[in-house]
Write a structure and sequence with these properties.
Elements (H helix, E strand, L loop, with lengths): L1 H21 L2 E6 L3 E2 L3 E11 L6 E6 L5 E6 L4 E5 L2 E6 L8 E9 L6 E4 L2 E5 L5 E5 L3 E5 L14 E12 L2 E11 L5 E6 L5 E6 L4 E5 L2 E6 L7 E9 L12 E8 L2 E7 L13 E2 L13 H6 L23 E3 L25 E4 L46 E10 L5 H8 L5 E6 L2 E9 L2 H11 L10 E6 L2 E3 L1 H8 L6
Parallel strand pairs: 2-12
Antiparallel strand pairs: 1-3, 3-8, 4-7, 4-10, 5-8, 6-7, 9-12, 10-11, 13-14, 13-23, 14-19, 15-18, 15-20, 16-19, 17-18, 20-21, 21-22, 24-26, 25-27, 25-28, 26-27, 28-29
């Protein structure tokens, strides 16, 4: 019994030793991922090894009718016949790491894949025979057949608006959407008079919000049905005007990577003029904060939140119905029409503030004062904490980009305030937005980069009250959620 255990132990030890020795050899391949048909492929095989015995062999099989030419044999005897290549070292295996190189020519048009790999057999210093299977690499032979891409159909949409009175200065606004070839990101924006309050009635899967005069319905993926309806309640009792007929809106969506817009006319316009989806370099002006976790946790103390939805059953229907249709031709431009003044959103004023150059001043008895007014300067200074992460500040770019909002206040402050109060000497941008003076920094095309910079700005030495990421589309502030939808990026915590 003891003899059997001893024999089993020896066999296990030899197997484990063979694994350790096999791990002393590593072989890698260098070659292209695709080759022409007919065409040639050059393959380089790199050997990394420990001290081995004298004999070794490398072998590789190829498809029939292939032509193989050895370019560098590293001192081995080369044998090529019947689609097989052998390189044999008798007692002249290189002592250090080495490489071999060969060329394969494929002439058979039916061959569409070439497996490159091989098998390396060798003797260890104690004459143990070992084999190393080189991992197979599949090389595409020839080009993929060209398939004519079918043109994507032009999106179409038309709208019907109903303003249904419910009582004194109370209305139910219904918007019916008839659409074709629209299944991705979409958004409805409604522009209300100052002081009007909206609550959601029927969202049809959209995210509803109201910030100041703007009501929004946002879909990450708009429902596939060709006909859908959304609605909301409007309280006009505190509005600057009681005319519900001036309420109009916009329908935005993404098609082939571009943001396009359609007008949703006011209920009293009676217009049947066609509207065409057009590419816009500045798609829309959005004054809402992000509906994602970014804004909900950091901006609730600065912005008004959307009111709670209420359910009300309409009782009277004496509204005016309008409908807008879209021609299928993409070259027709929408006629220029003058918009009511109540629907025009003023673009936020942006001021770029750079960190002032540090200078040494002689001591005087005059007390130091700091001006509360942000000044423009062209001198840049690196922040002292940390120096490697403060980005250069540029003017707003076209397309979607992200910044980090540091703080917001009701009055403007300058660089001296940030240096004295927050120990921050980096660049920042001052922006008047939604009744606040907001201070942002950075300019990033990728959300993850902005998230990383936000984490830097959370350094306790800065003492900023919860920096968070904000988003812009061609200079206009939009929600982070919308920016991620438009760019196809993913939110990261």
């Amino acid at each position: 019994m003891l003899k059997g255990i001893f024999v089993s132990f020896n066999l296990a030890f030899l197997y484990l030793l063979s694994l350790i020795l096999a791990n002393g050899v590593n072989i890698t391949l260098d070659c292209a991922d695709q080759m022409d048909s007919p065409g040639e492929l050059i393959v380089k095989v790199n050997f990394q090894k420990e001290t081995l015995g004298g004999f070794a062999k490398f072998q590789q099989n190829f498809p029939q009718d292939s032509e193989i030419e050895v370019i560098n044999n590293a001192g081995a005897r080369a044998e090529v016949a019947n689609g097989q290549m052998k390189l044999i070292w008798m007692n002249n295996l290189p002592e250090t790491d080495f490489s071999i190189e060969y060329k394969v020519k494929i002439t058979n048009p039916e061959v569409n894949n070439l497996k490159v790999g091989g098998k390396f057999t060798y003797l260890t210093t104690d004459n143990q025979r070992m084999t190393f299977d080189v991992p197979i690499k599949n090389v595409k032979v020839g080009e993929d057949p060209i398939v004519a891409e079918k043109p994507k159909p032009q999106p179409e949409a038309s709208f019907t608006r109903l303003a249904i009175p419910k009582g004194s200065d109370q209305y139910l606004m219904q918007i019916s959407i008839s659409k074709k070839h629209l299944n991705d990101f979409a958004k409805v924006e409604e522009f209300l008079p100052e002081g009007a309050v909206a609550t959601a009635e029927e969202t049809n899967g959209a995210v509803f919000s109201q910030i100041n005069k703007k009501v929004k319905f946002v879909w990450m993926n708009i429902p596939g049905s060709e006909n859908l309806m959304i609605s909301y309640n409007v309280d006009m009792s505190r509005a600057t005007t009681k005319e519900i007929s001036i309420v109009e809106g916009k329908f935005s969506f993404v098609h082939e990577g571009s943001t396009k817009q359609l007008e949703i006319p006011a209920s009293s316009s009676g217009s049947s003029a066609p509207a065409l989806a057009q590419n816009t370099s500045k798609p829309e002006t959005s004054i809402s904060e992000s509906t994602t976790q970014e804004s909900s946790t950091n901006n609730s103390s600065q912005e008004n939140s959307a009111p709670t939805a209420q359910t009300v059953t309409p009782t009277i229907d004496n509204s005016v119905e309008t409908k807008t249709t879209i021609p299928t031709s993409p070259k027709v431009e929408a006629p220029a029409t003058e918009k009511p003044k109540t629907t025009i959103s003023e673009k936020p004023k942006t001021v770029v503030v750079l960190a002032p150059k540090q200078t040494i001043k002689p001591k005087t008895t005059t007390p130091k004062t700091s001006s509360p007014i942000a000044k423009n300067t062209t001198t840049k200074a690196k922040p002292s904490l940390p120096k490697s992460v403060t980005p250069s500040v540029t003017r707003p770019q076209n397309g979607v980009h992200y910044r980090v909002q540091l703080m917001a206040s009701h009055k403007s402050v300058g660089a001296s305030y940030f240096e004295e109060r927050h120990k921050y000497k980096g660049n920042f941008i001052t922006e008047n937005h939604s009744g606040w003076v907001k201070y942002t920094t950075g300019e990033f095309g990728v959300y993850r980069q902005a998230r990383d910079h936000r984490n830097v700005m959370k350094n306790p030495n800065y003492k900023f009250p919860g920096p968070f990421v904000v988003a812009y589309n061609s200079g206009d502030r939009i929600t982070v959620q919308e920016a991620l939808m438009i760019t196809g990026q993913k939110w990261v915590q």
